[in-house]
Amino acid sequence: MSAVVVIGAQWGDEGKGKVVDIFTQYADAVVRYAGGANAGHTLVVDGKKMVLHLVPSGALHPEKTCVVGPGTVVDPAALLAETAALRSQGLLGPGRLIVSDRAQVVLPIHKLVDGLREDGAGDGAIGTTRRGIGPAYEDKSGRRGVRMGDLLVADRLAQKLELNWASWAPIIEHLGGEVPDQQAALAELLELGKALTDVIGDTTSYIHQALERGERILLEGAQGTLLDVDHGTYPFVTSSNPTSGGACTGAGVGPTHIDTVVGITKAYTTRVGAGPFPTELHGQEGEDLRQAGSEFGATTGRPRRCGWLDAVALRYAVRVNGCTSLALTKMDVLTGLKRLQICVGYELNGTRIDSVPADDLDALTPIYEELEGWEEDLGSARDIDELPAAARAYLARIEELVHCPVTLVSVGPGRAQTIAVTDPFATQK
User: Fold this and answer.
1) What is the DSSP string of 33-80?
2) With contact defined as beta carbons under 8 Å apart, do 144 and 163 qualify?
3) What is the pLDDT of residue 252?
4) Could you give the count of Cα atoms lying within 13 Å of 247 in the half-sphere of its Cβ?
5) Which of 111-125, 129-143, 381-395 has the lowest average pLDDT?
């Protein structure tokens, strides 16, 4: 039995899609365990770009099974469109996709509320993707949520929508919106349920049966550690647990099944939406990094905020997730910068601190260490030894600061532009 978790070690957008796609060659099944269509995982294979929002990033390997676990929230219309697009390319054949009947459904009313709240919050807006993720998780915690299995049972779905509408209608009216027609929503959801009947099933049993057969399970997170609802930069967080602990609850496996946790980090730091960002670069420096790295949201197209690598926050992520190794992406984006900076500590009210506080993150002043940059193009490197000395020194300093080895380095967007690849199932803790 063997399971590997891949998590985002920053604020999301770290390149998990590419890393999961590469690791899928060693796995039998890939399981998405948290989040919803607010996550966009970008893959580039043979020069062709594809963005996945709900289906796991292992979908480009036609012989592998993709699983959407019970910890996710699923927009059935988005899922249907995504699966149709993949199948038009000969992917996700019969039996290759299983969606948990326990996964919560993102309803149109959730997206409406999400947008109304953001519009009405002004400067206090969280910066959500407006995909209805937060309200869907609210219904889940409020024990009135609709689950994917409910789409197959008309009477049960109707009863749950009655509870749902009773809860959200007063809020929508208060926010100045128009309450959608409940019966029209019921009819639409039942049609979506019919279209998805063949993929809805008991994913927990599937995963455990696969483990008992000795198969390898790759657990794919969404978003990142600093967006975790418990461990992130609250309240500017997502509504779920994208950390490694969320893989257990979100997929339905115990921690004893997990052998390896791989944290994904960029060679610098980005963030989408509002919230604290101690190492953010403003002005031309930040814009140059954004353009060099094509830092625009895969789901929304919003420009990402960019800054230097924050080793304090990365070390925090390594600890919270129990990372056994790191995969470092977008190393090539730093090419051409004469000097690089890494945040090695913070100053808060005149005192140095070396950990991420729960509050007052806007008051943090980063303490930087400067390193030499490099001019050489990295795109053709396929071994660590082929990197320039300054790039190798940068990697070594990151490992030293965060107390975790780097076992994969991405030097370009393509699948082949990767060095130091190891089988994550062979490097168990």
Assistant:
1) -SB-TT--EEEEETTEEEEESSS-GGGGSTTSEEEE-TTBEE-HHHHH
2) yes
3) 96
4) 31
5) 111-125
**Rounded-to-5 percentages of helix, strand, coil across the chain:** 40, 25, 40
Catalytic residue among 13, 150, 310, 332: 13
Q: Choose, from 41, 53, 110, 231, the residue flagged as catalytic.
A: 41
Question: Could you tell me what percent of the chain has a pLDDT over 70?
Answer: 96
For the chain, which domains are there? 2-101+199-261 (3.40.440.10), 104-196 (1.10.300.10), 265-426 (3.90.170.10)
What are φ and ψ of residue 180, in 5° steps? Answer: -70, 160
Residues 6+ away with beta carbon under 8 Å from 344 = 311, 312, 367, 368, 369, 401
Q: Strands 104-105, 339-348: parallel, antiparallel or unpaired by DSSP?
A: unpaired
Model confidence at 129: pLDDT above 80? no
Q: What is the mean pLDDT of the chain?
A: 93
- Res 429: pLDDT: 46
The question of whether 41 is a catalytic residue gets the answer: yes
Q: How many helices (H) and strands (E) does the chain have?
A: 11, 20
Asked if residue 125 has pLDDT above 80, the reply is: no
Residue 13 falls in the annotated catalytic set: yes
